[in-house]
Structures are given as structure tokens and as C-alpha cells.
Design a protein that fits this description.
The chain is about 65% helix and about 5% strand. The mean pLDDT is about 80. By secondary structure, it is mostly helical.
Length: about 150
């Protein structure tokens, strides 16, 4: 499911409030990823070799932690910070080809860099400078996809 908000009058939120709302939780999340060794190439390798439950447990916990608020947003009819209702729009499923190709590309990127896109930010912030190349490449790939998407068969 994806989230969408209806058009509503937007009020300008001060930068300090934006940082507190997004920056601080993001910083906390990045530190948590580093401390939990989620960004460790060795932990990822253990997971794919079925030698450790560590990352499977974290992924399973993340699914539960994300599912509960999503259900609450939907059932309680919560609103965004600007007052617009938050709508959960069902995802339109397409043919299996785009998921297979996307999954293969994602897997190649994960195999080449040793990390998935989210932890790249934590690694760069944690001082692993070489990951800046992978992060910039991921951003460039996303930008290119955004421009060629209308030309692709979806």
C-alpha cells in the first residue's frame, strides 16, 4: 500500500520543527542500524548463507512495527501534520516481469555494494566514505528511472 494525502491548504512549518520531526528520528534510526549491525556486510552474508537468524529477526520485527501504525492510521482516520486525511491507496499489481527485473537489479546492487539502499545513508554517516559512491549511484539510478519510466512497459 502507498500513502497519499488530499490537497489541503499547506502551512509553512519552521525548519527547526521539520528537523525535529524528520531529522532526529532519522539520526536515531541510522545510529540504531549501525549499533544493531544491520549494515554489516558480514551480517548480511550470514543471513544469505542461513548461518544466523539476526537479520531475519530484525526484518520480521520491522514488518510488525510498520504494520501496526499503518493499520491504526487506516482505522482511526488519522490526519497529516497539515490536517489533510492520510489515505491508504491499494497498490495496483502489474505483470510479474517488472517485479522480477526490479528484484534482480536490487539483488545485484545489494551483492555489489554489500548493503541495501536504506543503510547506505547510515554507512556514509558512520564514516564509511566509499559508500558515498554507492549512494550517489543509487540516487542517480532512481533519477534515471524517474525520467525513463513513461517509456517503459508497466
Amino acid at each position: 500500500m502507498t500513502t497519499a494525502t488530499l490537497d489541503a491548504p499547506r502551512t509553512r512549518v519552521p525548519r527547526s520543527v521539520e528537523f525535529a520531526a524528520y531529522g532526529l528520528p532519522g539520526l536515531f534510526f541510522g545510529v540504531t542500524l549501525m549499533k544493531a549491525e544491520v549494515v554489516s556486510w558480514f551480517r548480511i552474508q550470514e543471513m544469505f548463507r542461513f548461518q544466523s537468524f539476526h537479520l531475519y529477526g530484525i526484518i520480521g520485527s520491522a514488518i510488525v512495527v510498520a504494520a501496526v501504525p499503518i493499520r491504526l492510521i487506516d482505522r482511526l482516520g488519522l490526519r497529516s501534520a497539515t490536517g489533510a486525511p492520510i489515505l491508504l491507496v491499494p497498490k495496483t499489481m502489474g505483470q510479474g516481469v517488472r517485479y522480477a527485473v526490479g528484484g534482480i537489479l536490487f539483488g545485484f546492487g545489494w551483492a555489489l555494494t554489500g548493503t541495501c539502499p536504506g543503510p547506505m545513508f547510515a554507512l556514509v554517516g558512520g564514516g564509511v566514505g566509499v559508500m558515498a559512491v554507492a549512494l550517489l549511484s543509487a540516487v542517480a539510478g532512481t533519477w534515471v528511472y524517474g525520467h525513463v519510466r513513461p517509456l517503459l512497459p508497466h
